[in-house]
Specification:
The chain is mainly beta. Strands 3, 6, 7, 8, 9, 10, 11, 12, 13, 14 and 15 form an 11-stranded antiparallel beta sheet that branches. It has a two-stranded antiparallel sheet with strand order 1-2. The protein is globular.
């Protein structure tokens, strides 16, 4: 999968607050074959895309979903190429196959938000220094060390082509090759300048993807 490429991740950890964009409950009519899916509580774009067996990008592009937005209950999502609506398996907290937030906090930097000449490769979640960072999903630790531009960093391999990255930590609580369950304590939040936050990424192999499409 090119693990070396996974570690070449451009810095995106700035903590200026961003206003969340609003998205319409009903997408604009689309002149192509497909169907509309009505979002139920707890559903994510990732889970909907898996249910209909299409890329996440097809859904976000067809519905003009901005990178700072999350889908909401009762929102209509156009599913290009689908013949009929499908039932999405409900997200259960106890399911290790679903993603969970690695800590509670406000998103202060969004995916692909521009900072200077670079785009954020993930999201920044505000926290208190020393707060516990938890594994967003079960996986194996494939990196647990200092990473230039990211500080103390943990990377988990979720064994299905997806990886999660946890950066800007003060202390790491896991070791290389350790297998962890979802919600396992893996690090403590560090401080960068005057702010404390977690920089969190989700990656498909070596390419970054928007964490908000995966988090409930």
């Amino acid at each position: 999968m090119g693990f070396g490429a996974l570690l070449v991740i451009a810095s995106g950890c700035v903590t200026l607050e961003t206003q969340k964009e609003e998205i319409s409950k009903e997408p604009t009519a689309i002149s192509q074959r497909g169907t509309y899916h009505k979002v139920k509580a707890g559903e994510t774009i990732w889970r909907i895309a898996k249910t209909y067996d299409i890329p996440i990008s097809d859904i976000t592009r067809a519905n003009n979903i901005p990178s700072v937005a999350k889908i909401e209950k009762d929102q209509l999502i156009f599913i290009p190429g689908a013949d009929a609506p499908r039932d999405v398996v409900p997200v259960l907290d106890k399911s290790d196959n679903e993603f969970a937030w690695p800590l509670k906090g406000k998103v202060v930097t969004y995916f692909h938000e521009r900072r200077g000449t670079e785009l954020s490769k993930g999201i920044d979640i505000s926290a208190q220094e020393g707060d516990i960072v938890k594994a967003a999903r079960s996986g194996r630790v494939v990196f647990a060390d200092f990473l230039h531009g990211y500080g103390q960093t943990v990377i988990l391999d979720h064994m299905d082509g997806l990886y999660s990255v946890y950066a800007r930590n003060a202390m790491l609580l896991v070791q290389l090759d350790q297998v962890v369950s979802k919600n396992t304590d893996i690090a403590q939040v560090g401080r960068s300048g005057s702010s404390a936050y977690l920089h969190f990424q989700i990656r498909k192999k070596s390419a970054e993807d928007n964490p908000l499409y995966y988090l409930p």
